Fold:
Amino acid sequence: MPAVRLHRVAVLVLEGAKPLDVGIPAQVFTTRASMPYEVRVCGAAPGLVTGGDGLSYHVADGLDALEWAEIVFVPGYRFPDREDPPPAVVDALLRAHRRGTRLAAISTGAFALAATGLLDGRRATTHWHYTRALAEKHPLVKVDENVLFVDEGSVLTSAGAASGIDLCLHILRGDLGVAASNHAARRLVAAPYRSGGQAQYVPRSVPEPLGERFAATREWALHRLGEPLGLDALARHAGVSARTFSRRFVEDTGYTPMQWVMRARIDLARELLERSERSVEQIAADVGLGTGANLRLHFQRILGTTPSDYRRTFTKGE
Structure:
């Protein structure tokens, strides 16, 4: 059996790096049988890097790891609004990007990407506490403070630490397919999919204790995607009015209930296309979309491709 090619991931640790931000991509992409990635944690130079929150890191690699990597994660770090990363780091990021390497920032790591100029004219996000500072320091960046992550193709940014998981799963979904992403989410005990457009936080004067109930309804729906799933049925299961359910569902997921159901159906269709030999017509029936024509319509609208082309991309053994 031919060896599986490993995707190369570098995690660039800057001075003051936040522990969770460093740990998320390092753990998500750590090499294992189910995860064909090789991870190197690096710094501006090999050796000790003083981190944030009382931790430091001993990294084996310097900036040469960016020449090796296919994707570089820049974790958040302390006081990003006070000064830019060292010029050598900025230059290395620019060189990597010119070679076609994807650059992904977690939280305040967006400031390091902004320092390269690569975010100028593009949408980006960062931790909500720093969105105004990012916009003031880099006025050409289109800062969006109301999202979990932004994918601009070759440069990606995310909000606080937890949204770094969402960004990593988003990247996995694009690289390896929805089955691999869902497997990683289960291993992390994380939500398999949260909209990048979901708000970072929703301030409320009086908390509404419906989170567990709504999570149970989403889980209930995921096991019934082949059945009719209307707003009234979902609200009835959650034990609230349809109006309350719709409002809270958007706050919790970033989607209306019916948008979420449709995307869940498309995600299930993707997994069946990746892992089974069932026809498009059979899969359409399995996921509650009725006909192959209906599946093709929504697949193209949401993913920009056809079920057949998608299956060819993720055929086993490729």
User: Anything to note?
Assistant: The CA atoms of residues 271 and 315 lie 11 Å apart. The longest helix spans residues 257-275. Residues 195-209 have pLDDT under 50 and may be disordered. The first strand starts at residue 7 and ends at 12.
